[in-house]
Predict the structure of MTMRD protein.
Amino acid sequence: DKEVRAIFLRLFAQLFQGYRSCLQLIRIHAEPVIHFHKAAFLGQRGLIENDFLTKVLNGMAFAGFVSERGPPFRTCDLFDELVAFEVERIKAEEGNPPKMIKHVRELAEQLLKNENPNPHIAFQKVPRPTEGSHLRVHILPFPRINEGRVQELLQEGLARSQGAPTATRGDKKCVVPAGPPVGMFI
């Protein structure tokens, strides 16, 4: 799963390399608006005639991508690092499948570490059913749920959560690295 996600991460990093140099921050409104200059992006990469990339850039998903990743001061992640710092490495690996596979595996490990920062916490594994368990007819039906008890448990949980401090991620905002300009990806 993580390796497939790493491959897509690399694909989108290659596809959008240099996108930050085509972002324009418009400050005429109370809230700044971020605009992506599509013509400059496609023109500098020599992809004006590319229908696929043009459709991707015109899609709602890319508009959401720009609004989410456009601000110059936000929490950075693995994608930002790939787009800004791994450009040459990705380009060099295009003709060398073993190096590309090694990089994909490294990215997959980083994705796993990001999702599971405490590997020492073991996940409970569900045991496999025994052989012939499907033939058993003595299995009792699922009991009816006591609605009063459910409400009590919900109230207890709400009371505990109101007194507990709110959990926040420790992500620190930083200036997003711009990476190389678009013109070098022709």
In short: The chain has a mean pLDDT of 82. The longest strand covers residues 23-26.
